[in-house]
Each structure stands twice: as structure tokens, then as C-alpha cells.
Amino acid sequence: MKSIKTLTLFSLAVATVLSVIAQQDKSQRPSPPAQVSATVNETKITIDYSRPSKKGRVIFGELVEYGKVWRTGANETTWMEVSKDVTIDGKTLKAGKYGLFTIPNEDEWTIIFNKKWNGWGAYDYKKSEDVLRINVPTEETDEVVEVFTIDVSESGEVTLAWDQTQVVFSVE
After folding, report:
1. What is the pLDDT at residue 149?
2. What is the DSSP letter of 74?
3. Residue spans per domain, the chain
4. Which of 60, 78, 97, 135 sits 20 to 30 Å CA-CA off 68?
5. Each residue's pLDDT tens digit in the chain (172 positions)?
6. 131 with 147: CB under 8 angstroms?
7. Rounded CA gap, 115 and 127, in Å?
């Protein structure tokens, strides 16, 4: 009887461990992870995010509601890390790692750098933990961007693009 209980418990433990391992393969998610980085004026900028796809949907104003905090991607909170203090829109952002949230609107987005960088989505977002907020105008892209994309150029321009919308801000 003891051996049956032991075997059952062991089987459950193995199944649990295998389940956890299988869930950790983030590349198999519908919105796979991505990381971009650049070195600007001896400062390393790294952004870690997940890349949802358009899949025929209307993105901004429908899937991603206007006027509401968005995780800026999918899955875990998108984060940005800077190795040294930087200036964004004339404001100082200290060296460190920050949650990168946005509030999309039709003509302008609010870009938010928040103390909470390691959550799931924007569910735990608290405005009181914002470190820096800037507003940037939206631009229409020449072509549809099927998969949400973040790019950091060697000059420090950060571009967020999806569907036919993009926003750009500079890190100096």
C-alpha cells in the first residue's frame, strides 16, 4: 500500500515539474518574447517585451483601448533598463530597470516608466509608482506592422510600432 502511495505521489511530482518546464518555454507562446538593446553615448539601453500579432484585428481603439494603461506588448510587463542616468524629453531617468507602460490615444500616447517592472501585464500597475511620464505624438506607418515591434536605434530613438501606428521617443 505504501509503495502505491509513494508511486502516485512521485508520478504527480514528475507531472507537475514537467508541466512547469513546458510552460517556461516562452518561445512557444502566441506572443513570443523579444529583447532589443543599443548602446547610446556609453549607456546600454535594453527593452524586454512580448510581441502580439494583429491577426486581422483592429488594434488601437478596440483591442487596445484608448485612454487606458497598456502593458505595451503582451504577457509579462514590458521593461526597459538603462545602465546610466539618461534624459527623456528633457527629464532625467536614473539608471535602473523600469516597467514600460503606455496610455494610447488616437493622436498622442503617454509613455510611462514605472518602478514595477516584473509583473504580469498591467494588472498590478499603480500610478503612484510612476517615475517618469512623457507624451509623444502618434505617427501613421507607411505599411501595416503585423507584429508589435519595439526598436532602439544607435542614436537613442525608441520606436513602438503596431498595426498602422507608431510612436517615437528619444533617450539621450
Report:
1. 98
2. S
3. 28-170
4. 97
5. 566 665 555 555 544 444 444 455 655 767 899 999 999 999 999 999 999 999 999 999 999 999 999 999 999 999 999 999 999 999 999 999 999 999 999 999 999 999 999 888 788 899 999 999 999 999 999 999 999 999 999 999 999 999 999 999 999 9
6. no
7. 10
Q: Beta 96-103 vs 130-152: how paired, if at all?
A: unpaired
Chain center to CA of 6: 43
Classify 4 as helix, strand or coil: helix
The reported pTM is: 0.82
Answer left, alpha or beta for residue 65, where phi above 0 means left and psi between -120 and 50 means alpha.
Answer: beta
Amino acid identity at 110: T
Q: Are 94 and 110 in contact (CB under 8 A)?
A: no
Cell 488601437, residue located: 60
Assess contact for 44 and 159: CB atoms under 8 A.
no
CA distance 37 to 150: 10
Beta strands in the chain (DSSP E): 33-40, 43-50, 79-82, 86-88, 91-93, 96-103, 108-114, 130-152, 157-170
